[in-house]
Design goal:
Helices cover 37% and strands 9% of the residues. The chain has helices at 4-15, 34-37, 43-54, 76-96, 125-135, 152-157, 206-224, 250-267, 286-297, 310-318, 347-359; strands spanning 101-104, 141-145, 164-171, 195-200, 228-232, 272-275. Strands 1-6-5-2-3-4 form a 6-stranded parallel beta sheet, sandwiched between helices. Pathway: Ketone degradation; acetoin degradation.
């Protein structure tokens, strides 16, 4: 979660001309007030974050502060509160019509729970942002999480709320943190079918990953008809990520982002808010994946064959790192659509079918054919 991820992403986007593309505006972020954070988080938890932020010698294990995943550091509250404000500013801009799309690559802190930190996440900016949309009058919000880890914090925040559909495609909890996100986890009483989980087998690569995205996300979002689409683009499903076990390429992540952009235009008038998330191959993978996301949101998509700009490569190599030469991995990002037929003996198809069986009937969809 090193801030270097954000610096390298911003530098790459700037070198590619994305931050100066027509219609693009780059804004700063204030420190979110407690009144905003506590629309999702327990005030006692926010007070605990403030205490350890002011004195990093303290720990508070009851609130998940001071663990290996969430070590205490000076300014923890202010830094995390800025991430919240940035995502809320994004949803405000999109809901008001000031912007068609908005992206906060520093956001996507999807593991944070109302009363504790978890999985490198202190405040759940996504949950606060979705709550803001509901407060401002959104009738339905769809949240799609492409991070390799289950989006458990966002799911928990809206477990009982039928106005919010949370869709998470992640490596199975049998092999990866947080060990949750099973197909049968479908939402609380009165909100059945609002939580959607695809638990992918370890080793899933482009063809299976994109097949799952299109077989689950697209029909459900179309059926749900949200007013706004909110997406999380953790880059850690990539084959080179050191903390997970999927084998997805930059090309496939680019294709998924493009398909979600198109889905937002098809279903909810283009109202799309995107965030970053996980991703721990900090130099080779994360900046490229998120630069593609920014280009897609700016309606200035970066062609797959584009070379990495020399200025960015020079900066990276000057720090002693190897720099990628191309903006993608050169993969085909091909998949066989679900409509072409499913194989119940295939582990990927079994995972997808388990989710479709658990959730599709709640939305009037046929698990096999829709």
């Amino acid at each position: 979660m090193a801030p270097l991820r954000l610096e390298l992403t911003a530098r790459l986007a700037r070198e590619l001309g994305l931050l100066e593309a027509p219609g693009v505006r780059v804004t700063g972020a204030r420190v979110a007030p407690d009144e905003l954070i506590t629309t999702v988080h327990d005030p006692r938890y926010v007070a605990a974050v403030r205490r350890v932020s002011a004195d990093p010698r303290l720990v508070d294990f009851a609130h998940g502060l001071g663990t290996d995943d969430d070590p205490v550091f000076a300014g923890m509250h202010e830094t995390s509160a800025r991430v919240v404000a940035a995502t809320v500013d994004c949803v405000d801009a999109v809901w008001s019509g000031e912007a068609e799309h908005a992206v906060n690559v520093s956001g996507g802190m999807h593991h944070a729970m109302p009363d504790r930190a978890s999985g490198f996440c202190i405040y759940n900016d996504v949950a606060v942002g979705i709550n803001r949309l509901l407060e401002r009058g959104a009738r339905r919000v769809a949240y799609v999480d492409l991070d390799v880890h289950h989006g458990d914090g966002v799911e928990a925040a809206f477990w009982d709320d039928p106005r919010v559909m949370t869709v998470s495609l992640h490596e199975s909890g049998r092999t990866l943190f947080p060990g949750t996100g099973w197909p049968e986890e479908t939402g609380g009483p009165g909100a059945e079918g609002s939580a959607v989980n695809v638990a992918l087998p370890a080793g899933t690569a482009d063809a299976g990953w994109l097949r799952a995205v299109h077989a689950v996300v697209h029909p459900l979002v179309r059926a749900f008809r949200p007013d706004v689409l909110v997406t999380q683009h953790g880059a850690d499903a990539h084959a080179q990520d050191p903390l997970a076990n999927l084998a997805v390429s930059v090309d496939a992540q680019r294709a998924a982002a493009r398909s979600l952009h198109d889905l937002a235009h098809e279903v909810c008038g283009g109202r799309w808010v995107a965030t970053g998330g996980g991703g721990y191959d900090v130099v080779d993978v994360v900046p490229r994946v998120w630069a593609h996301l920014l280009g897609i949101a700016a309606h200035a998509p970066v062609p797959p064959a584009t070379p990495v700009p020399p200025g960015w490569r020079d900066f990276v190599t000057a720090q002693g790192w190897d720099a990628p030469e191309a903006m993608t991995d050169g993969a085909q990002a091909w998949f066989s659509p679900w409509e072409a037929g499913a194989d119940p003996s295939d582990p990927l198809d079994r995972a997808v079918l388990a989710t479709r069986r658990a959730v599709f009937p709640n939305h009037g969809l046929d698990p096999w054919f829709d």
